[in-house]
Each structure stands twice: as structure tokens, then as C-alpha cells.
Design a protein that fits this description.
The longest helix is centred in the N-terminal third of the chain and has 18 residues. The chain is built from 6 helices and 13 strands. Helices cover 32% and strands 27% of the residues. It has one domain: ApbE-like domains (T-fold). By secondary structure, it is an alpha+beta fold. The strands form 3 sheets. A 9-stranded mixed sheet has the order 1-2-3-4-7-10-11-12-13. Strands 5-6 form a two-stranded antiparallel ribbon.
């Protein structure tokens, strides 16, 4: 089964290779992602995140899901010394860097609970896969028609943070300025919750984020620095990666 829908501002594609997989499970998956967008998007005035940001909700009245999301945000803020921060001065509360990976991972968990064993769930270029091997290409940060590496994923997740889609949108919370030390950084991890958050947090740290991400348990890294030097961790599962080890 193959299906693509536009959710949370980007295309989400699902491929399931299991015989007898129920279409209704895919319905549940995309309904969950639409629910997440409605509840946690900072761009929707009626979302729980926006209401919290405006002071209309007290911390003790938050849903368990938003409490979990904010806990993850705080974990990465602390781990990066404030480089990753969803509460930047003068800006609205924006936990999207955690919400995306967290919600798509929960969607993958839903698929597994329904019996899916071989699937690939791609959310705007961030991927959760099971029952591989699956080959995942990482876009070149300066050339849209090229790949800078291809990796092999069996059971796990991969996420990339870069400047090519949204410009200098990742802010270093320590300085309040855009993070420009990297052109792109890809993280492979057991879950997309971690892969996506670590990739964004490491990008906010700049060049020092490469070693920081590679030191996270279970994480492997491929990065292109602003000086165009390629760096990868020794265990990065690439089928054709260049560069020196982190």
C-alpha cells in the first residue's frame, strides 16, 4: 500500500509492504497527524500551544501530550546549554522541532501495533522505517538535484536539519542569531523523536554540534560544515559517504 497526504505543512508518504494491511490503519495514522497539527501548531490561534503562549492555560492544565513535548524541549535546551530553545525572546513558543519527530514516531508505533512489519513512513524528508533494508537518500545542501550520501536503514529513523528549504530558520538560543556553522546535518537514531530533535539541536550548536550529536547514545551523524567539509561518525550506515570521522 502507498499513500501520500499533505499534513503539518509538508507531504507525508506511507509505504507498507505487508500483505493484508488494512487501509483503515492508514486512515488512523493520518487522522493522528492532523490532530497533532490542530493541537500543537504555533501557527493555529486555537491550538493548545498558542493558548499556552498567550497565557490562557496554566502549566497544571496542559494535556499529558503537551507536557511530554515540553519536557523533551527542556531536555534538549539543557543538554545544549541553551542553543536549542523553543522559547526565544520576542518569538512565539514553537516546539515544532520536537513535535514533528515525536508525532511521526507515534504514528509509526501505531502501524506496528496494527501488525505492520515492513514499512517506510516519510514526513517531509524525515523517515521512520521497519523491516528493511531501506535506502534513504540525503539531499545535497546546495544542489537540489543531487544527493550527498545514501544510507541503509533497517529498523530506525533518520532526520536532517538544513538551511536549503527554509533558509536560516534555526536560531542559536545562546546568541539569538541564526545558526550558520553547518549547511546540513543528518542523524540516524532508534526513533524519530530523538533523530529529529538531536538534528535540530545539533544544528543550533553549529560545528560543535557534530561531536555533540555523535556522542548521544544510539545516534550516528553525517554533516556538511559551512566550509563544505564533510564529517561523519564511524557507525553512520552509509552505502557511499565521503568525509572524515567525527
Amino acid at each position: 500500500m502507498r499513500r501520500v497526504e499533505h499534513v503539518m505543512g509538508f507531504p507525508v508518504s506511507l509505504r507498507v509492504d505487508d500483505e493484508g494491511f488494512r487501509e483503515s490503519v492508514a486512515d488512523d495514522l493520518f487522522a493522528w497527524l492532523r490532530e497533532v497539527d490542530a493541537r500543537f501548531s504555533p501557527f493555529r490561534e486555537d491550538s493548545e500551544v498558542s493558548r499556552l503562549d498567550r497565557g490562557e492555560l496554566s502549566p497544571d492544565r496542559l494535556s499529558p501530550e503537551l507536557t511530554e513535548i515540553l519536557g523533551l524541549c527542556e531536555r534538549y535546551r539543557s543538554a545544549t546549554g541553551g542553543a536549542f530553545d523553543v522559547r526565544l525572546p520576542g518569538r512565539r513558543l514553537d516546539p515544532c522541532a520536537v513535535v514533528k519527530g515525536w508525532s511521526v514516531q507515534k504514528g509509526a508505533d501505531l502501524l506496528r501495533a496494527a501488525g505492520a512489519r515492513r514499512f517506510c513512513l516519510n514526513a517531509g524528508g524525515d523517515v521512520v522505517a521497519a523491516g528493511g533494508p531501506w535506502r534513504v537518500g540525503v539531499r545535497h545542501p546546495e544542489h537540489a538535484d543531487r544527493l550527498c550520501t545514501v544510507l541503509e536503514l533497517t529498523d530506525g529513523a533518520v532526520a536532517t536539519s538544513a538551511r536549503y528549504e527554509r533558509g536560516d530558520h534555526i536560531i542559536d538560543g545562546r546568541t539569538g542569531r541564526p545558526a550558520t556553522g553547518l549547511l546540513g546535518l543528518t542523524v540516524v537514531a532508534p526513533t524519530l523523536t530523538e533523530a529529529d530533535a538531536v538534528a535540530t539541536a545539533a544544528f543550533a550548536l553549529g560545528a560543535e554540534g557534530i561531536a555533540w550529536a555523535a556522542a548521544r547514545p544510539g545516534c550516528e551523524v553525517f554533516a556538511v560544515r559551512a566550509d563544505r567539509r564533510v564529517v561523519r561518525s564511524p557507525g553512520f550506515p552509509a552505502t557511499g559517504a565521503a568525509g572524515e570521522a567525527a
